[in-house]
Design a protein that fits this description.
single chain, about 120 residues, mainly beta, 7-stranded mixed beta sheet
Amino acid sequence: QVQLVESGGGLVQPGGSLRLSCAASGSIFSIYTMGWYHQAPGKQRELVARITSGGTTNYASSVKGRFTISRDNAKNTVYLQMNSLKPEDTAVYFCYADVQTTTRARYDSWGQGTQVTVSS
């Protein structure tokens, strides 16, 4: 099995910054795309950003120019640098990874979520 552990959420004022991290561990053979979703109260989970193993990135239009996704393949870790945060960015942020285990099973693994609150 592969586990994802997120860190870096919290409370920040509008215009501030936060950096989320998500580390994968366990029976990892390979990790393909990694990314971040968020879910606000009463809303569906939405894609924020994703990055392939080769470094190709995609962003939701609402965060382009403000958020940057990156990854360290040697550490099996994905990051989300969030700048110029707005109250509407408030949500629980979940990381995910398209993983293949040492037994060659392949599936999407999800983290437990970390709360990001943007408020003055």
